[in-house]
Each structure stands twice: as C-alpha cells, then as structure tokens.
Amino acid sequence: MHRTQLYLDESRYSYVVSLAKKQKTSIAQIIRNFIDRCRQQEVPANIEDDPIFKIIGLAGNKGSRGMPVAENYETYLYGTEEQVRALEAEYQKKHPKNKTP
C-alpha cells in the first residue's frame, strides 16, 4: 500500500466520517471502497467488446433473418455463438421460408 494525503472541505470530511462510523471502519477504507466501486463502473477500454454491440444489425431482415430478436435478446447479447446458432436453427425448423444465408 502507498500512503497518501488528501484535503477535504468540511462537508466532505463530515460525510466520510459519518460513513466510517456507520460502517465501523476507517476513513481510509471508505475511500478505498469508493475507488473500487468507481473502477467497476468504468467503461471498458475497448467499448466494442461490450455485449450490447452484438445486437446491432439484428433487427433488420438481413441480420435477423426475420427471427424474433427482442424475444431472445439475452441469448444474442450474452449467449455463446453455439447458443445463438442453436436458437437460429430452432427458428429455421419452425419457419423454413426464412432462409439463413
């Protein structure tokens, strides 16, 4: 660990002190916890790796091949390629007129 010094105005200091008392921990631990929470909420370095980008283009007939993407969005966003292919194969069995390219 590195030792550091921090200047806080009265309202911030009072707030941190009250949190530390409520949580029965040190002011330093409150600040470390806050930093950890901020780091968890950071945008990924490569935003294209975010699962939400997988769904782009699926709504059009070409991309979705007429499949109900909204009903299965979790599979498209968070599923494996194998799960997506299985979902598409199942859909194609039920709706053979919509050809997969």
Give your account of this protein's structure:
The radius of gyration is 24 Å and the shape is rod-shaped. It folds into two domains: 10-40, no CATH class; 47-94, no CATH class. The chain has helices at 10-23, 27-40, 61-64, 73-78, 81-94. Helix 1 (10-23) packs across helix 2. It is mainly α and 101 residues long. The chain has five helices and no strands. Helix content is 51%, strand content 0%. The termini are far apart.
Short descriptors:
single chain, 101 residues, mainly alpha, 0% strand
**What is the number of helical segments per DSSP (H or I, 4+ residues)?**
5
**CA gyration radius, whole angstroms:** 24 Å
User: What is the overall shape?
Assistant: rod-shaped
Helix content: 40-55%
| Succession of helices and strands | HHHHH
Work out the count of structural domains.
2
SSE class: mainly alpha
What is the CA-CA span between the terminal residues? Answer: 56 Å
Report the β-strand fraction as a percent range.
under 5%
Low-confidence stretches: none
The overall average pLDDT, rounded, is 81
The total beta strand count reads 0
Q: The biggest beta sheet, please?
A: none
Summarize the structure.
The chain has helices at 10-23, 27-40, 61-64, 73-78, 81-94. The protein is an all-alpha fold.
